[in-house]
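Standup, Tuesday
Yesterday: got the pipeline producing structure tokens again.
Today: sanity-check two examples.
Blockers: none.

Example 1:
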Amino acid sequence: MTVASILNNVIGPVMPGCSSSHTAGPYHIARMCRSLMGELPSEVIFSFEPCSSIAEVYHEQGSDLALVMGILGLPLTDSRFKHALELFKSYGVNIRFVIESFPEACHPNSIKIEAKLKDGSDFSAVADSTGGGSVIFRRLNGWQVSMTGDAYYLAVESMREEVIEKLSARGDVTSESRDGRNFFLLTTSYPIESSMLEEIRTARGVTGLWYALPVFFPLRGNRIFTSGAEMVKYSEDHCMTLGEAALEYESALLGMPKDALDAEMDRRLQIMIDSVALGLSDASPAMFLLHPVAKKIMLAEKEGRLAVGGIHTRAAARAMAAMQVNSGQGIVCAAPTGGSAGVIPGVMVTMLEDMNIPRKDVLRSMWAAGAVGWVLATRGTFAAEVCGCQVEIGAAGAMGAGAVVEAAGGTPQQAADAGAVMFQNAMGLVCDLVQAIVEIPCHTRNGSFASQAFICADMILGGYCNSVTLDDTVDAVYASGQMLPLQLRCTSLGGIAVAPSALSMPRLR
């Protein structure tokens, strides 16, 4: 069971589109590699397993751009992101991408990194982008590791064992021995002083040292609940809403004050608001396959030219607006992924503008949305490469339903039930990207699920009794997702992705 943070793993990261698994995750991998190397390398090769999800879509979804930005040590949101492939030569580094099998690959988004440093030494790592921007390093210079980016990591290779005493005083240490060599990995929530790093680097018998800074908020505390059932019970026992309990959880896990966490969540809410506004403007960025349509839908609704219209249509159009920005590689907040980055903005902006809910209450609904998504982050995955679109746009819809219940004054149990019902309606949803681009059917799904979030919330608030718990539903979603064939899990090898009309669509850019 994963120790998940709402800000680290559910509401975020803030990123340029279009995919958290294939854009933000690779960036975090490369950024950690740059940190471990300690310098800009002279050469880097990124390898992808043939037929894997990332091998099929890495160029279309900006994995190559993100990997370059990470290795160069540039922010993911840097305005030069779109031109990253033109940047690295000016930095004096040669970067290549190859599709080649490697035995350590164990995930649809496994990446092997091989680098040559300027002093002639070699660096290698194997890491997986596990969904929603999360990562795990499994190999470092041939040694087995487990690094998820939410801590400080110090890896030491030594011919002697004495070094473990210095490391053990600072945190958890794992070790491995082979051919007279020892490898130690220290995981700690706090930075290590440069004096200690130098002392270990120059110690007798030390043959290698690698230090990585976190790419997420470090986990400095403990969980106050570990399941959806415990989450609801904690909320009820402490007379809290689900959103309030989620904030309490995050404060305990990250060891951060609640006002600072609220400020960060509010920043992410503003990014969502801005993405909707940009998508509804004449400046909506150009996409690969689709022309911007969100503004047209909003205008048609306003003029009464639609069959029904109303709040559900406006929520859908706003979700599509945010997805236009995502597809145009503008800045969005993944929630929980880039491919589902429209649902929560569509829901939140609709509550702000159509329901006139105060921003502070919408902010608390953001935490409630995070709480519903946290259950999947803890028990499953946000990677469509593993479980299909049900764990991306389906998860966003469930999160949105929980958020609407929170804003409407519903109980924690009702918010969890609304999320469960939405998950149940999304179960089995495949990921079948047309031409490996996060546009079709992603845009209309985001719009549809933003609308459905309000419907599922209303059904629960109106008296529907959900009999299958959120925990059980999430477990069923995860299990059923793993039964999907490879062709229906973000490889563009099945579903509508292989329809003749989809394959023949011209690229707009």
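Example 2:
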Amino acid sequence: MSVQEAIRIYHDLLNNRLARVSTEQLEEQLGKRGLYFGDRPLCTVLRPRFMDQRQYRLLQERIRVLMRAFNRAYRLAMADKPFRDQFGLEEWEEDLIQHDPGFYNPVPVSRLDAFFLTDSDELWFTEYNAEVPAASAYNDVLSEVFYGLPVMRKFMRRYNLRPLMSRHTVLQTLMETYYNWMPRNEPPRIAILDWNDVPTFSEFVLFDQFFKSHGFPCKIVDPREVEYKDGKLMSGDFHITLIYKRVLISELYSRGGRDHPVLQAVRDGAVCMINPVQCKILYKKCSLAVLSDDRNRHIFTQDERQAIAQHIPWTRRVEERHSDYNDTPVDLIPFILKYRERFVLKPNDDYGGRGIVLGWNVDDATWEKAVYTAMQSPHVVQERVVIPTEPYPSLVDGRVQISDRQLDTAPFVFYGEYVDGCLTRLSTDTLINVTAGGGSTVPTFILEPR
């Protein structure tokens, strides 16, 4: 059995009639369950992503080693200011990370973004979303929707499919971290915290329903609607003791400053916030540069160095310095100017594809301007990696159309240790990001023949 064979069988089932009824049901369920990103449907294709157990196990095993390297870099950064400078923190971030969050782990819930060429087991991690890893609830509910599609019912006569659910692990992680923060028998009162006009609001509704279904008081809360008084963080008459933070810390700070009620309450130990401010260190794009840079090789173990070399693309902070590339000394700025088609520029602290410049998509003048802009504020330059493609079907003008889509692999990571669940995003564009308008999300299933 191969995944490619299973994909062919699935596509062969999709005659125009079956595709039409499956599309109608998919669209109905997307609307009924709120599976929209703003006003865009979350999924626009008729096949989920398939992996076999060996591929998923490889993903889990390699990430476990890489996470040890990230955690080692984090601990050294917290203990050593000169080393921490490599991450490019702002002055206000330096101030906030000094305050103890009340628990040990800086990234209880996180997500890695990768490109996984499953035919060759080539796996490259290009970003670490250590602050606000979105889409776990979207992914779980979308998996439920796909289970019910007519085409899936036919396909499952031949294959067993296991969904990669993760909402339950999000809840378990929130609870365990909360009870480490407050070792008393007092259940949490959860605030899902973000602006009420963000396009991911519909996912907050899914989490709100999920948390309440497990007996936990919960409220979706806009940071502009909270106040901190008498040692309590309040949203109206709702006393918040646990924040499931979906808002970016930089946005909290830019809109409310250091004394935003949420940041005050966190500093005073009046509320547990997940992820804590300390996650900013690993959220920075420079965290991949810290792992990739040969000047830091000595801090990692042999198996960590091997995993970094195999799975982290060459990444450097953009600055005037001498470095290395494939064991060859280079003058960094002239080197990346000369070989723009090999590289991508990324701002150190941004999301949704904003500010990213793909060297192979621009001319020399545009690239030169982008490089010099990147030297003025923390950016990284990262080596281009191969982006995998797979065929995905959709219904176009009443007929099945199968076209290649680029896809990424975004596993959810818990406690900075292990993988449980995986997001897959598709695009017809090189920049694969739903926030940036990129394509479709599909659930991921582990597949085996019956």
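Quick observation on example 2: The first strand starts at residue 36 and ends at 37. DSSP finds 16 helices and 24 strands in the chain.
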